[in-house]
Design brief:
The chain has one domain. Helix content is about 75%, strand content about 0%. It has helices spanning about 5-30, 45-70, 75-90, 95-105, 115-140, 145-175, 180-210. Helix 1 (about 5-30) runs antiparallel to helix 7 (about 180-210). The protein is flat, with a radius of gyration of 20 Å. The relative contact order is 0.14.
Protein backbone atom coordinates (compact mmCIF):
# COMPACT_ATOMS: atom_id res chain seq x y z
CA UNK A 1 0.00 0.00 0.00
CA UNK A 2 2.74 2.49 0.97
CA UNK A 3 4.64 1.68 -2.21
CA UNK A 4 1.71 2.89 -4.33
CA UNK A 5 1.62 6.35 -2.72
CA UNK A 6 2.50 9.09 -5.20
CA UNK A 7 5.24 11.05 -3.47
CA UNK A 8 4.70 14.40 -5.19
CA UNK A 9 0.95 14.45 -4.61
CA UNK A 10 1.30 13.35 -0.97
CA UNK A 11 3.79 16.02 0.08
CA UNK A 12 2.18 18.76 -1.98
CA UNK A 13 -1.01 18.02 -0.05
CA UNK A 14 0.84 18.09 3.30
CA UNK A 15 2.44 21.46 2.49
CA UNK A 16 -0.92 22.92 1.42
CA UNK A 17 -2.53 21.67 4.64
CA UNK A 18 0.32 23.24 6.65
CA UNK A 19 -0.12 26.58 4.89
CA UNK A 20 -3.87 26.38 5.52
CA UNK A 21 -3.28 25.78 9.25
CA UNK A 22 -1.02 28.85 9.43
CA UNK A 23 -3.50 31.09 7.58
CA UNK A 24 -6.41 29.97 9.78
CA UNK A 25 -4.21 30.48 12.86
CA UNK A 26 -3.51 34.08 11.84
CA UNK A 27 -7.22 34.79 11.34
CA UNK A 28 -7.91 33.22 14.74
CA UNK A 29 -5.14 35.26 16.40
CA UNK A 30 -6.02 38.68 14.95
CA UNK A 31 -9.77 38.41 14.23
CA UNK A 32 -10.87 35.52 16.47
CA UNK A 33 -12.21 33.71 13.39
CA UNK A 34 -12.74 30.84 14.00
CA UNK A 35 -13.17 31.35 17.73
CA UNK A 36 -12.02 27.91 18.90
CA UNK A 37 -8.48 27.65 20.28
CA UNK A 38 -8.21 24.31 18.48
CA UNK A 39 -7.18 26.37 15.42
CA UNK A 40 -4.28 27.99 17.29
CA UNK A 41 -1.01 26.36 16.17
CA UNK A 42 0.64 27.49 19.42
CA UNK A 43 -1.78 25.44 21.56
CA UNK A 44 -0.84 21.88 22.56
CA UNK A 45 -3.13 19.17 21.17
CA UNK A 46 -4.75 21.60 18.71
CA UNK A 47 -5.74 20.42 15.23
CA UNK A 48 -2.37 21.45 13.78
CA UNK A 49 -0.52 19.72 16.63
CA UNK A 50 -2.45 16.49 16.02
CA UNK A 51 -1.46 16.78 12.36
CA UNK A 52 2.18 17.01 13.51
CA UNK A 53 1.78 13.96 15.76
CA UNK A 54 0.65 11.94 12.75
CA UNK A 55 3.72 13.05 10.80
CA UNK A 56 6.05 12.23 13.71
CA UNK A 57 4.45 8.78 14.01
CA UNK A 58 4.91 8.22 10.27
CA UNK A 59 8.60 9.22 10.50
CA UNK A 60 9.22 6.79 13.37
CA UNK A 61 7.37 3.93 11.64
CA UNK A 62 9.26 4.47 8.37
CA UNK A 63 12.59 4.45 10.21
CA UNK A 64 11.66 1.18 11.92
CA UNK A 65 10.71 -0.24 8.51
CA UNK A 66 14.07 0.85 7.08
CA UNK A 67 15.80 -0.86 10.02
CA UNK A 68 13.81 -4.03 9.41
CA UNK A 69 14.73 -3.99 5.73
CA UNK A 70 18.39 -3.02 6.06
CA UNK A 71 19.37 -4.42 9.44
CA UNK A 72 21.38 -1.29 10.30
CA UNK A 73 20.93 -0.39 13.97
CA UNK A 74 21.38 3.31 13.26
CA UNK A 75 17.85 3.38 11.82
CA UNK A 76 16.47 1.72 14.94
CA UNK A 77 18.19 4.43 16.97
CA UNK A 78 16.68 7.18 14.83
CA UNK A 79 13.28 5.50 15.09
CA UNK A 80 13.56 5.62 18.88
CA UNK A 81 14.59 9.30 18.76
CA UNK A 82 11.51 10.27 16.76
CA UNK A 83 9.34 8.05 18.94
CA UNK A 84 10.52 10.14 21.88
CA UNK A 85 9.82 13.33 19.91
CA UNK A 86 6.28 12.08 19.33
CA UNK A 87 5.70 11.12 22.96
CA UNK A 88 7.23 14.34 24.25
CA UNK A 89 5.09 16.49 21.97
CA UNK A 90 1.81 14.63 22.49
CA UNK A 91 2.13 13.85 26.22
CA UNK A 92 4.09 17.00 27.20
CA UNK A 93 6.72 14.82 28.87
CA UNK A 94 9.42 17.39 29.57
CA UNK A 95 6.89 20.09 30.54
CA UNK A 96 5.07 17.90 33.05
CA UNK A 97 8.20 16.39 34.59
CA UNK A 98 9.84 19.83 34.59
CA UNK A 99 6.97 21.38 36.56
CA UNK A 100 7.00 18.42 38.98
CA UNK A 101 10.73 18.88 39.57
CA UNK A 102 10.23 22.59 40.28
CA UNK A 103 7.56 21.78 42.88
CA UNK A 104 9.49 18.83 44.31
CA UNK A 105 12.87 20.52 44.71
CA UNK A 106 11.83 24.17 44.82
CA UNK A 107 13.92 25.23 41.83
CA UNK A 108 13.96 29.03 41.78
CA UNK A 109 14.31 31.56 38.99
CA UNK A 110 17.92 32.58 38.42
CA UNK A 111 19.40 35.38 36.29
CA UNK A 112 16.09 35.93 34.50
CA UNK A 113 15.67 32.21 33.70
CA UNK A 114 12.58 30.48 35.05
CA UNK A 115 13.02 27.47 37.30
CA UNK A 116 10.88 25.38 34.98
CA UNK A 117 13.10 26.33 32.02
CA UNK A 118 16.05 24.81 33.87
CA UNK A 119 14.23 21.61 34.83
CA UNK A 120 12.69 21.18 31.38
CA UNK A 121 16.11 21.36 29.75
CA UNK A 122 17.40 18.86 32.33
CA UNK A 123 14.59 16.45 31.44
CA UNK A 124 15.31 16.84 27.72
CA UNK A 125 18.98 16.05 28.34
CA UNK A 126 18.11 13.06 30.54
CA UNK A 127 16.13 11.49 27.70
CA UNK A 128 18.12 12.89 24.81
CA UNK A 129 21.69 12.03 25.80
CA UNK A 130 21.15 8.23 25.99
CA UNK A 131 19.23 8.25 22.69
CA UNK A 132 21.84 10.37 20.89
CA UNK A 133 24.65 8.24 22.40
CA UNK A 134 23.02 5.05 21.12
CA UNK A 135 22.56 6.67 17.72
CA UNK A 136 26.21 7.80 17.67
CA UNK A 137 27.45 4.31 18.50
CA UNK A 138 25.18 2.71 15.90
CA UNK A 139 26.24 5.36 13.37
CA UNK A 140 29.91 4.47 13.83
CA UNK A 141 29.74 0.71 14.26
CA UNK A 142 26.39 -0.57 12.94
CA UNK A 143 25.95 1.14 9.57
CA UNK A 144 27.52 1.39 6.15
CA UNK A 145 28.51 4.50 4.19
CA UNK A 146 25.04 5.09 2.79
CA UNK A 147 23.38 4.66 6.19
CA UNK A 148 25.89 7.10 7.73
CA UNK A 149 25.09 9.71 5.08
CA UNK A 150 21.38 9.37 5.86
CA UNK A 151 22.12 9.54 9.59
CA UNK A 152 24.16 12.75 9.19
CA UNK A 153 21.35 14.33 7.17
CA UNK A 154 18.81 13.35 9.83
CA UNK A 155 21.08 14.88 12.49
CA UNK A 156 21.06 18.22 10.65
CA UNK A 157 17.27 18.03 10.24
CA UNK A 158 16.95 17.32 13.98
CA UNK A 159 19.29 20.19 14.88
CA UNK A 160 17.18 22.53 12.75
CA UNK A 161 14.01 21.31 14.46
CA UNK A 162 15.53 21.75 17.92
CA UNK A 163 16.71 25.27 17.06
CA UNK A 164 13.10 26.32 16.50
CA UNK A 165 11.47 24.12 19.14
CA UNK A 166 13.80 25.09 21.99
CA UNK A 167 15.96 28.11 21.15
CA UNK A 168 13.33 30.24 19.39
CA UNK A 169 10.73 29.12 21.93
CA UNK A 170 12.93 30.55 24.69
CA UNK A 171 13.03 33.93 22.94
CA UNK A 172 9.27 33.67 22.39
CA UNK A 173 8.75 33.30 26.14
CA UNK A 174 11.19 36.08 27.05
CA UNK A 175 10.27 38.73 24.51
CA UNK A 176 8.52 41.68 26.14
CA UNK A 177 7.06 43.38 23.04
CA UNK A 178 3.49 42.12 23.12
CA UNK A 179 2.78 42.85 19.45
CA UNK A 180 5.69 40.65 18.38
CA UNK A 181 4.71 37.60 20.43
CA UNK A 182 2.06 36.32 17.97
CA UNK A 183 4.42 36.86 15.03
CA UNK A 184 7.32 35.07 16.72
CA UNK A 185 5.01 32.25 17.85
CA UNK A 186 3.72 31.81 14.30
CA UNK A 187 7.26 31.72 12.89
CA UNK A 188 8.35 29.21 15.54
CA UNK A 189 5.47 26.75 15.20
CA UNK A 190 5.05 27.25 11.46
CA UNK A 191 8.74 26.51 10.90
CA UNK A 192 8.47 23.35 13.00
CA UNK A 193 5.59 22.17 10.82
CA UNK A 194 7.54 22.70 7.59
CA UNK A 195 10.68 21.10 9.04
CA UNK A 196 8.78 17.99 10.12
CA UNK A 197 7.25 17.75 6.65
CA UNK A 198 10.78 17.95 5.21
CA UNK A 199 11.96 15.18 7.53
CA UNK A 200 8.99 13.00 6.59
CA UNK A 201 9.66 13.57 2.89
CA UNK A 202 13.35 12.68 3.31
CA UNK A 203 12.68 9.54 5.36
CA UNK A 204 9.93 8.43 2.97
CA UNK A 205 12.35 8.70 0.02
CA UNK A 206 15.01 6.71 1.87
CA UNK A 207 12.45 4.02 2.73
CA UNK A 208 11.45 3.72 -0.92
CA UNK A 209 15.10 3.46 -1.92
CA UNK A 210 15.76 0.68 0.58
CA UNK A 211 12.60 -1.15 -0.45
CA UNK A 212 14.00 -1.31 -3.97
CA UNK A 213 17.27 -2.88 -2.81
CA UNK A 214 18.43 -6.08 -1.17
CA UNK A 215 20.62 -5.14 1.79
CA UNK A 216 22.90 -7.45 3.72
CA UNK A 217 24.92 -5.61 6.42
CA UNK A 218 28.61 -6.57 6.41
CA UNK A 219 28.64 -7.06 10.18
CA UNK A 220 25.89 -9.73 10.15
CA UNK A 221 27.47 -13.15 10.76
CA UNK A 222 26.33 -15.55 8.08
CA UNK A 223 25.53 -19.10 9.25
CA UNK A 224 27.96 -21.82 8.21
CA UNK A 225 26.70 -24.35 5.69
Amino acid sequence: MLKNIKEGRLFSSIILITIAFIIVHLFHTYYNIPASDMFDIEIDNSFSEIFLYVQELAIAVLLFLIYRKSGFLVFLAWGLIFTYVLLDDSLLVHERIGVWLVDRFGVENNYGVRGRDITEVAVQLAFGIPLITFMGWAHLFRSDEKARQISITLFFWLALLVSFAIVLDWFHVKIMIINLKPILGTIEDGAEMFILTGILWYVFRQWKNYEAEIIRPDYVIKPKR
